[in-house]
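Quick one:
INPUT:
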């Protein structure tokens, strides 16, 4: 009995075309239909390795590491600056899963930037924020706001050292009024000092010292006493948030 040999099934043409279209290794410019452009390495048809992506509509450019189609590793994000005629760096640091994660520097303006830790595109961990008005916050962050222990130093030299929650002073802390030579130590709730003590601190070196010293507890001093109102500060500047004067 003769044995008939069956015909081999051939794959549809689109499968062969798809295999040929798979991008692997280094490629030159690859354009999308919306005008976006990518130059760099590929793996299994996904951006993987070193590469540069330009988003035409946003005017944004990313240069750095990719992993399976997402920004992952170290990279720099820039935006087109029409006045300068070139791209202006906005973020330089580490990424994970297409989001800022790890250490990085974010530029918010010519004189305002953050350097520190990120998690999921938000400032989280330890970081230092330089504000355009000259203030500086250094300490812990959570969900893009000061949270934990931190220090706010204002442009005039005054500073707060203590605890923060949700971007506001919360808990125990100390406020150094170095311009008047006083120190307030107490407890804050949502940026408001609820209780504490005020003492003289560096009054002799202060540029604008209070007219009269604060008497020590138990002293027999009978002269005038400087109060916060007389010294030009009715309350500690606890309402000042990072980035405000």
């Amino acid at each position: 009995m003769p044995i008939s040999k069956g015909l081999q099934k051939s794959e549809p043409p689109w499968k062969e075309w798809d295999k040929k279209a798979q991008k692997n290794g280094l490629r030159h410019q690859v354009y999308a239909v919306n005008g976006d452009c990518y130059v760099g390495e590929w793996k299994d048809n996904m951006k993987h390795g070193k590469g540069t992506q330009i988003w035409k509509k946003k005017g944004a450019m990313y240069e750095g590491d990719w992993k399976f189609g997402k920004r992952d590793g170290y990279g720099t994000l820039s935006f087109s600056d029409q006045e300068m005629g070139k791209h202006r760096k906005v973020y330089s640091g580490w990424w994970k899963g297409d989001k800022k994660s790890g250490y990085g520097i974010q530029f918010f303006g010519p004189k305002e930037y953050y350097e520190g830790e990120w998690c999921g595109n938000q400032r989280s961990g330890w970081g230092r924020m330089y504000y355009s008005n000259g203030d500086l916050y250094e300490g812990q962050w959570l969900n893009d706001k000061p949270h934990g222990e931190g220090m706010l130093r204002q442009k005039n030299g005054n500073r707060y050292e203590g605890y923060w929650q949700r971007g506001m002073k919360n808990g125990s802390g100390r406020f150094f009024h170095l311009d008047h030579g006083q120190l307030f130590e107490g407890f804050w709730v949502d940026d408001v000092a609820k209780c504490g003590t005020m003492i003289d601190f560096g009054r002799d070196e202060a540029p604008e010292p209070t007219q009269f010293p604060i008497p020590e507890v138990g002293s027999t001093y009978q002269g005038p006493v400087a109060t916060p109102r007389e010294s030009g500060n009715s309350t500690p500047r606890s309402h000042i948030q990072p980035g405000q004067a």
